Amino acid sequence: MIDLQELHKDLKMSVLELASIGLPTASYRFWTATDIRRATAKVAERLANWAASIEQEERDARNTG
């Protein structure tokens, strides 16, 4: 079982950051498994987009220089 209090400490995210990935901001105690799955998917999508952006920058740099 995941200790939500520890997870909350580990995340160290602001209320706006939590809201931006879809987690209820009132309290971690109200997070459901669905909330956490949805937030995980959003974070994974953001990381994938970031990686794609970096890859594109690297390709552009190779092509121009």
Automatic annotation (TrEMBL):
What is the official name of this protein in its record?
Answer: Uncharacterized protein
Q: Which organism is it from?
A: viral metagenome
